[in-house]
């Protein structure tokens, strides 16, 4: 039959991790609601067991309570299974996001690397060395100019303490002024 009529193609995309996680979470919530209802029912049966006298009536209530308890344990098992599935989906989603982040990082690094290579073509180490040498020469010339401008006129370089205390230096300063 498949050859004559063909096979129906599935046009629906597969569910995303978020969709599957949301669906499982909803199912888990409904199972939790059922467990709460069964808990309420169990507590009613416990009260009935306490109030009834031992005998066939109490045994019937116990039997109903046992069925409800079995049902509750079944739902708890399903809930645990759903929680495990949600946990697995969360792990897969986290890993997928990590890979996407790594891809973006690699793309950014490649782009930055390409840009740096382009910049490095315009900058040559020899040009930097030459510029540094020129700056050192200019600084030396500037220092020489500052020293020349800062020279003192008509002040003897060899003044000792005795002359300073004796007043000869004051006399020299008066001459300068």
Automatic annotation (TrEMBL):
One of its GO terms (biological process) is vesicle budding from membrane. The keyword Zinc-finger does not apply. Residues 1-30 are annotated as: Disordered. GO terms for cellular component: multivesicular body. Residues 99-148 form a coiled coil. The keyword Magnesium does not apply. The lineage of its organism: Eukaryota, Viridiplantae, Streptophyta, Embryophyta, Tracheophyta. Residues 20-30 have a biased composition (Basic and acidic residues). Pfam families: Snf7. It comes from the Eukaryota. Keywords: Coiled coil. This is Charged multivesicular body protein. Belongs to the SNF7 family.
